[in-house]
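Internal ticket #5521
Category: modeling
Description: The requester needs a full-assembly model to guide mutagenesis choices. All entity lines are attached below as received. Residue total reported by intake: 731.
Assigned to: D.W.
Attached entities:
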Amino acid sequence: MVPYLFVLAPIALLVTFTYVPVANMFAYSVTDWDGLDRVKNFVGLANYVDVFTEPDNLRVFVVSLYYLGASFVQMALALYFATVLSFRVRLKNLWKGILFFPYLINGVAIGLIFLNFIRPGGGLDSALLAVGLESVIRQWTGDPEVINYTLAAVSVWRYMGLNFVMFLGAIASVPGEIYEAAELDGANRWHQFRHLILPSIKPIVGLSFILAISGSLSVFEVPYIMTNGGNGSETFVIRTIKMAFENNKVGLASAMAVVLLAIVLVVTCVQRRLVPEEKVDLT
Amino acid sequence: MLLTRMTRATVVMAGTAAMVALAACGGGGGGGGEPGAQDMDPETCGPAGDLTVLTWRTDLVEDGTFDAYVADFKEAYPEIGDVDIQGITDYEGEVKTRMSTDDYGDVLAIPGSVSPDQLSQFFEPLGELSEMQTQYRWVEPESFEGLSYGIPVVGNVMGAVYNVEVFESAGVTDFATTPEEFLTDLEAVKAANPGIAPLYTNYKDGWPLTAWQSYVGGVSGDPEFTNGMTTDEAPWSGGSDMEVIDGLLYDVVAQGLTEADPTTTNWEQSKQMLATGQIGVMMLGSWAIPQMQDAAEAAGESRDIIGYMPFPVQTDGTFHAVAGGDYNLAINVHSSNKCAARAWIDWFNHESGFSESQIGLSPLVDGPVPESLQAFIEDVELVEMAAAPEGQESLFSDIDTESGILTTSPDYRMKIVDDARSGARTKQQVFDDLNAAWGEAVQAVSAG
């Protein structure tokens, strides 16, 4: 009996604060509730149809593609730095710290920092002027052609450090004597990367690729703070929140949240399938 | 964005947490007082006991203005116990969530998202509409089926705040009487003051753009304009209010007479920029005047540098300006102390001097006009938008929601600004798309 009593407390909390609200969210998603009315009318799957048919709702998926593309750039950079810093480098820990630091900063602070950095006449423009690149200067968030690249780049800056640390950890698990053996066989750094490091960290790279998909749909903080979703930078989550709290379409917003949840679940499943938790054999 | 399970989880949380928070507060209901069960005439019911008041004016809570109000109120009604003033920053969002419980104070302002047919679910009727109208202005919008549920604390008129010196330096001394003339004036302002934003949209913050919707009715001077839109399948045509207002927004942006990069605007900063002449004009209601004057004083300028002009259209040779109530005070239908709540509302409107201190119009029919607005009021004919006919109180908002345009949302006008800057859609295409969406919604809603 006693063990059950101990389990009861966390279960009660979990049910109250996770499962009941999520169940409510499912219930709202098939109603036309405006967030206020005491009466909620059942509308079936109309909200789900809206999520995938209204042009304004579909636009947010296009915006996700920018972030998906950026996540590949981010992984390439992370892999590059992780590889370089896994070899003997001076001030190794300092570089690691510098690369990882952005991830430690709060997303709101990052949004505010970059807001000032990229505003017209701000830090970025001054830096470009100083090196004679004034022809490159444009309205980084004001130009609808550029805005999503700008915001995606900020995301890369922010999250690259985390990828970097993950890759670095994976690389560290490669035993040192294998490098020595490779060097004796005449392998250069590129060969070592191509034939030793990459195969041994393949699972973690694969994992990162898959998570990039759900990650790019869930982009929120940076565009929300920097542009409030304006000028064509609205993402899926920003739109969900606007629908719920500005447009009073809680039913539709719940449906969007359910869709996001479903996508995340599917991606997690696929990831489990594709990346079995097996040991890598280097011999 | 991106990649790790941890980040993914966090961001998904951001999306769903908001929903979940909302969901967690669902249910409730029951309990509390019943409508009409308590005597609410402060003369006879004897206001006493504790009172909770929700307000959106956090600035007035912080600077002690409300403390003074409470002290005065207690002097008038010595039996009153504690008055708990709760200032709420995100008033709309937070109060809406609290309203899914019974605990949303005794006195509160009716959030904008409550549609007329929902009023009776949440608020105590304050009296017959026809009777209330003999005493108060702008009570129709928050009434339903002949009963009134809220009284505005202050009335606003819709014009535009501008920097007098900036316009004078450009040789503009008369108010523009047509949108075209207004654009020419702004060109002159730009030429005389290179580098400033002749008109500042406050695009980034979004909500200042919603003010544009409040000029509806002030173009034609037609108090029935909004009601007419419920049967008009193409309201953005024929020089209608909607066409003129959105057309002006489109033109002013397309001609480069607004800030260069709207995505980096800043509301707090804009006040100081207007005061120091970096901005010519901002399209905001009269509520903005005291804030701009304060900013001018803080910047070492005279308060008189801030002027107020009518929307640049004349109909039948006169300017029109829409006058309407700000937030309406109402009583929680579940309140256990409706007597004291009613006493607070009546006292606030009659005795507190709030509307004058805010440079707004008094909600009382025979109330005073503040000095700063006197000149403006003499230049314009005020328009009070008519209430929807009985039985159609929610028709406009139903069509508005159905069409997906949401005339009251910032997004709608942000899109117009986007198109005007990028040229992705011409002005006529914008109107055509709006007409198509609206026309479809009119048919869908009337079909039931």
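Resolution: model delivered.
Comment from assignee: The CA atoms of residues 230 and 265 of chain A lie 29 Å apart.
Ticket closed.
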